[in-house]
Design a protein that fits this description.
- The chain is mostly helical and 360 residues long.
- Helix content is 48%, strand content 9%.
- The protein contains 13 helices and 10 strands.
- The strands form 5 sheets. A two-stranded antiparallel sheet has the order 1-2. The protein has a two-stranded antiparallel sheet with strand order 3-6. The protein has a two-stranded antiparallel sheet with strand order 4-5.
- A hairpin with an 8-residue loop joins β1 and β2.
- α3 packs antiparallel against α4 and α7 crosses α8.
- The two termini are 52 Å apart.
Length: 360
């Protein structure tokens, strides 16, 4: 990771020495119980973050334009990282479509390994890789069109951009660089958590570096590029809601490019559900084992034939911490699988009464 950042910052500094602090060295400490690494770079005092929109975007666009790929291709000579996550950058491709498909597929696979199975999300990912990428990125290098491989920082957000307190000039640091389509750089700005995502920054960047043709597909390409950043964030930050947001963004992109495929999946799998449903499924086997040990005790408790008993049972099985029992007017999330398992031996009459109660 340290070597990747060293090489990334070195490449950025070589294009514009004012736009990135010069990295001097990286290495591993000789004495450490846990392998520990360092990166030594030029010191700059950090001022305003993010920098002034006009000056920053103008210099970013100029940096993109001045950069030259040493091979004339897209990629990089070494693996660089997004946070702690290794990116697929150490390869060279003539086709930006081909490289980005491999990179996004790599990120999607890391997400799959990290989280419970979610069939509809996996289906949407496949549509993006197989249909949305060719549809949106193929035209950039066809029918007489072409794009230049530009060196990108690779992970620009509010906290790794700044104004130099000594010179007043904007600069970037903590690079995840490789040679890419310049518009990829702005994919990370789409999320509203970043102030760089404001229209002021994006509009001024596009004034300095106009959108690639087809120009009217800029927003869809930006949505496509944002998926890699936000999927990576969902993998790196457990417990966040980024994955749900990516699921919605993937759905939005699919609805723009191939709505029929999305509709067909929903028709064939109406019970696909959300990630929370998938988590329930993953936990169901463990819950059933726990409940088997409780069956004898439950059988001695007698039948619960009135609605109040079922409400109390639901309260006992609420997933989230609650201030009191589940009552009318409170939409607490209940694990359906656990409730059905707990009451499966109850009488059909009592179950029907609970299921049709307006208070449920």
């Amino acid at each position: 990771m340290s070597e990747g950042q060293f090489e990334a910052d070195k490449a950025i500094h070589a294009v514009s020495n004012s736009f990135c602090p010069r990295p001097y060295a990286w290495g591993q400490y000789r004495v450490s119980e846990v392998p520990t690494y360092f990166l030594l770079a030029e010191f700059r005092e950090i001022g305003q973050q993010p920098p002034d929109a006009i000056r920053f975007t103008s210099q970013l666009a100029d940096f993109h334009k001045k950069s030259v790929s040493p091979t004339g291709k897209f990629g990089f000579h070494i693996t660089t990282c997004h946070g702690k996550a290794a990116q697929l950058t150490d390869l060279w491709e003539d086709s930006w479509e081909s490289l980005y498909r491999k990179q996004l597929g790599h990120t999607f696979e890391a997400d799959k390994q990290k989280h419970p199975d979610w069939p509809e999300f996996e289906f949407r990912k496949k549509i993006v890789l197989d249909k949305c990428i060719p549809r949106l990125l193929g035209p950039l290098q066809s029918e007489g069109r072409n794009i230049k491989p530009c060196l990108v920082h690779g992970n620009i957000w509010d906290q790794n951009t700044a104004t130099d307190m000594e010179t007043g000039e904007p600069f970037v640091f903590d690079g995840s660089a490789f040679y890419a389509h310049n518009e990829y750089e702005l994919g990370n700005w789409r999320d509203p958590r970043h102030r760089l995502g404001s229209k002021t920054y994006i509009r001024n960047y596009k004034r300095s570096f106009p959108a690639s043709e087809p120009e009217d597909e800029w927003d869809s390409r930006n949505l496509l590029y944002s998926l890699r950043f936000n999927t990576c964030a969902a993998t790196l930050i457990p417990g966040s809601n980024y994955r749900e947001h990516v699921f919605e963004d993937v759905g939005e992109l699919c609805s723009r490019i191939c709505p029929d495929d999305l509709a067909a999946f929903r028709s064939d799998a109406p019970q696909a559900g959300s990630e929370s449903d998938c988590v329930e499924g993953a936990m169901e086997e463990e819950e059933e084992e726990e409940e088997e040990g409780e069956e004898d005790e439950e059988s001695d408790q007698g039948e619960k034939h009135n609605r109040g008993d079922y409400v109390n049972l639901a309260s006992d099985l609420c997933i989230a911490p609650i201030p009191g029992p589940c009552t009318t007017g409170h939409a607490w999330e209940i694990s359906r699988a656990r409730i059905l398992e707990a009451i499966r031996n109850e009488s059909e009459t009592a179950m029907a009464s609970a299921a049709t109660s307006p208070e449920w």
